[in-house]
Prior knowledge:
By secondary structure, the protein is of the alpha+beta class. The chain has a single domain, classed as Aminopeptidase (3-Layer(aba) Sandwich), CATH 3.40.630. It has five helices and seven strands. One of its GO terms (molecular function) is acyltransferase activity, transferring groups other than amino-acyl groups. Residues 5-168 form the N-acetyltransferase domain. This is GCN5 family acetyltransferase.
Amino acid sequence: MSLNLIIEALAGSHDRSAFSCGVPVLDRYLREQANQDIKRRVSNCFVAVDRNNGVIAGYYTLAASSVPITSLPEDQTKRLPRYPTLPAILIGRLAVHTLYQGQRVGSALIIDALQRSTRAAPASFALIVDAKDEQATAFYRKHGFIPFESSQLSLFLPIATALKLFGS
């Protein structure tokens, strides 16, 4: 069976109770905290829903953020203005249900986050993430994310680079 996903904003109609990605803190976030963060305007949450059965195949969150220019590798700052910080969008959490892992759902979520970021009214230099572990870091690096100078678990993907990579 091929995947037939729709990615949309988390709503009360989505059944979050059976979501399991193998990381309890990410499962609990979707079930217990995501709606509160949305209501408080701390972050937005988007879910990939399998149209065949209504199951949430994965989710991610987006929030406004900034990046200190000094934390970027020198080759990334050559053509940038010398502002102390640059606007960015944080993918705060990204998780894929265990039933859908290995089926490129995570890639689809990153592409959706990129598309939403480029459509946002405020400009943004990059998508940023804080990977939970080396496996997550490898996943993000495979998608073109670059580690910050200060931490190999914190990565960024310049929006302009992403547009070229993903052909958007």
